[in-house]
Design brief:
The complex is a heterodimer of chains A (81) and B (153). Chain A is an alpha+beta fold. Chain A is 30% helix and 26% strand. With 153 residues, chain B is α+β, with helices and mostly antiparallel strands. Chain B contains four helices and eight strands; from the N terminus they run βαββαβββαββα. In chain B, a hairpin with a 2-residue loop joins strand 7 and strand 8. The chains are: A alpha+beta (81), B alpha+beta (153). At the A-B interface, loops of A face helix 3 and strand 7 of B.
């Protein structure tokens, strides 16, 4: 089961921070399409170019593979300090 | 060294211990960032990190700054969780043989932390809560350290 993590405002849009997906799609892009089909507002937010994606804590592009045990994090613009 | 912590910290104590026993570091520079009240409108800041990723990314940037400016040592302490106005939120210290390297190393790390380190900041205000994005100046500041304009969002 793949785990999906949302950060920042994405949590407010989706109403969740973390969930498991039993039949995880094979790529980040496919996972985004699946999430978008369930929740259009979240899909729009995830599609913003400012959103970075990490698979197993490495920043990746949309065609990156997602394994059954992967942790996929969606990260909107970052701001610390 | 990089530390994320939910407990408040005392910047003076951090600076004292960071600077102690240095016989070859002619310059020690530190920066302390403090949560602003913004005229009383801010009740608290809420800082979220991605444990295991945020700390690793900052470690990577600290190592890069250390190599680039020939720093002897780097310390980054960043609060996470709920932070009240007036409380220190971030502390960066650098040590180098001479002052310029220490200033620049500290400057670069702070620019990185403001707009590129994986933190998300929510401001709880009298009128409600809102997510804080970096300011345009923060992106410009961060871009000063790289020759690659593509890295600016």
């Amino acid at each position: 089961m793949a785990r999906v993590l949302l950060f920042g405002r994405l949590q407010d849009i989706a109403g969740w921070r973390e969930r498991g997906i039993d039949s995880a799609p094979a790529t980040v892009a496919a996972l985004m399409a699946q999430l978008s089909a369930e929740d259009e507002a979240l899909g729009e937010a995830l599609a913003q170019p400012s959103v970075r994606v990490a698979v197993d804590r490495r920043i990746v592009a949309g065609d990156a593979p997602v394994g059954p045990g992967s942790e996929v994090a969606f990260m909107p613009p970052m701001s610390g300090g | 060294m990089v530390r994320l912590q939910s407990e408040p910290f005392e910047p003076g104590a951090l600076l004292t211990s960071f600077g102690a026993g240095r016989l070859e570091s002619g310059g020690v520079v530190s920066f302390t960032g403090i949560a602003r009240a913004d005229g009383g409108g801010v009740e608290a800041l809420e800082l979220e990190a991605y444990p295991g990723f945020t700390d690793a990314e900052i470690e990577r940037m600290a190592a890069e700054a250390k190599a680039r400016f020939d720093l002897h040592d780097v310390l980054v302490v960043h609060r996470i969780g709920r932070i009240l106005p007036g409380e220190p939120i971030v502390f960066v210290a650098t040590a180098a043989a001479h002052r310029r390297a220490a200033f620049e190393g500290c400057d670069q790390l702070m620019d990185y932390l403001k707009s590129r380190a994986p933190f998300w900041k929510k401001s709880h205000e009298t009128g409600g809560a809102r997510w804080i994005d970096p300011r345009a100046e923060d992106y410009v500041d961060a871009a000063r350290w790289t020759a690659d304009p593509e890295e600016t969002p």
